[in-house]
Amino acid sequence: MEGRSIGTERGRWVPESPAWWQRGVIYQIYPWSFADASGDGVGDLRGIRDHVDYLAWLGVDAVWLSPIFPSPGVDLGYDVSDYRDVDPRFGSLRDLDDLVAALHAVDVRLILDLVPNHTSDRHPWFEQSRRDRTNPRHDWYVWRDPRPDGAAPNNWESYFGGSAWTFLDPPGRWYLHSFDPGQPDLNWDNPGVRDAIRDVMRFWLDRGVDGFRIDVIWLLGKDPELRDNPPNQGWREGLPDYLRLRRAYSEDGPRAHDHAQFLRSVVDEYPDRVMIGEVVLPPERAVAYYGTDLLEAHLPHNFALTEVRPGDALDLVVADWTAEGIRAIVEHYEAVMPEGAWPNWLLGDHDFPRVASRLGPERARVAQMLLLTLRGTPTCYYGDELGLVDAPPGTRGAVTDPQAATGEERDRLVARTPMPWTTGPNGGFSAVEPWYPIASDDQALTVERQRADPGSLLHLFRALIRLRRERPALAVGAYRSLLAPEDVLSFERWHPDVAVHVHLNLGPSPRQIDLAGGRVVLSTAGPTAPAPKVTLGGYEGVVVDVSASE
Ligand code: TEU
Does the N-terminal or the C-terminal CB of the chain have fewer CB atoms within 10 Å? Predict the structure, then answer.
């Protein structure tokens, strides 16, 4: 049964000298919630630095840090009022430099989150822009005159609900904001904007950061004529209002690719840096952001394993967590990727419900084994290595999510809760009450408990990372699906020297698998799982060393 390819061919390209961002594992830190060293209830850079030993112990290769720039905090940092400094709630530039040095000392890279589509309305650029239409900065944002009846220039809607336009007088015009009114969209057709963002990138790259995750990169390309978005055929009562229109003209236009190439050209001025693009689109559209000749994002984020409502779709596309469903997702993604492009996977980020809440605790382990054995760079959201869950709906803290303000979309803060380090007060996150409650009082979810328990998810996660480091087949090898019994996802990761088989039982019942003469080297069932073994328990996954000769 084993050994016959039913999907993608094994002949796929294996990089000969892979870059760190191809071999490595990326770990996303939401700075508000990782660790509070200053004692104000909000996480900060010194807090992260205090836990660099944890990141090194875990074995991750890079940290992607959500925005830490000065910000009024309307969208918790995705509304930047100064691109060249650190928000006092997180520390200072000096703390950032110290963090870079501390991470580099243990061979961990730092990727910053760059938000080039919009600034805060408190950014000096916008404050100048809004003064009057003759101001040299006026055209740095997207302004339009009212229609004859005084109405907004077109029917575009904000991701956070309501019109994407707000009227201001002066200058007596409407400005565009794809998100909150406190986040005006920059005008990327103005060369001054491009140059200013280029200089911001150089500022951070000169300080030694290892790359950027570019926020909403697909939104940089708007229709130059700002045409009305067409109605979404098939919208029906019960669906949120913001789905009445297809986002055909407000995003993902050809200019997004020009701008992505431009951003990449700046990253490429420096050796060995990475550009990640946030592209919340279905895979066949997201992979366009690798770019012609691969000159855009090194890693356009792949949301196929999460639940996504792509720009103009009506229904949530929810990853189908059956063996057949996941196999189809993986093969589809492998098939639509351009030649020579490097894949990437994530199970969620700060905008999505946590994977352990979505799938339930019994499937949390096999989900991490999938993430860390697929072909491509995995990005892990902080806390998922513990199986951290969402805070119960309705949980409120000191700040609120603008996305949840209209009541039509979910509250994203439930997945941004403080990291539970210890069983002590406030989870060891802070000496004082945190800005947002800790998700769960289950002490089994703390780092302290899981570090002490060799059978924990945390230890499994770490063992998977170590295995990737030891086996090039897992880190950079080719992928092909293998025939497998019902409910089981089986695939091979192939490398000229060795091969590895991965068998993931995504169902609740025990299943027989064929080890093809190989040896089980890791099981989600824990370090004591007998090897060799041929029966997988419900939701159990194993990694098997096999000979690559066949
Ligand atoms: O997210 C953009 C984005 O697509 C989100 O609106 C996402 O679709 C939605 O939250 C899913 O529920 C980025 C950032 O990741 C997000 O945190 C920011 O709010 C947003 O851009 C604006 O900068």
Answer: C
**Residue (of 209, 217, 303, 299) closest to 255 by Cα position:** 217
Taking the domains of the chain in order of start, what are their residue ranges? 5-117+190-465, 124-176, 476-549
Is residue 540 a contact partner of residue 511, using CB atoms and an 8 Å limit? no
Residue 79 Cβ < 6 Å to ligand 1: no
159 in contact with ligand 1, CB cutoff 6 A:
yes
Residue 53 is predicted with a pLDDT of: 98
What CATH number is given for 124-176 in this structure?
A: 3.90.400.10
> What is the CATH class of 5-117+190-465?
alpha beta
CA of 346 to the centre of ligand 1 (A): 15
| C-alpha to C-alpha distances, 351 to 129, 303, 414, 521, nearest whole angstrom | 30, 11, 10, 34
pLDDT of residue 5: 40
Q: Is the pTM of this model over 0.85?
A: yes
Judge contact between 388 and 354, C-beta under 8 A. yes
Please report the sign of the dihedral spanned by the C-alpha atoms of residue 252, residue 257, residue 258, residue 260.
positive
Residue 61 in contact with ligand 1 by CB distance below 6 A: no
* d(CA 351, ligand 1 centre) in Å: 6
> What six digits make up the tokens of 425?
């007060």
Tell me the H-state helices in 67-143.
93-105, 124-129
Determine the number of helices (DSSP H) and then strands (DSSP E) in the chain: 14, 20
Q: What is the β-pairing status of strands 519-523 and 511-512?
A: unpaired
Q: Name the stretches of the chain with pLDDT < 50.
A: 1-8, 10, 550
Domain 476-549: CATH architecture, name and number where available: Sandwich (2.60)
Residue 176 sits at φ, ψ, to 5 deg, of -90, 135
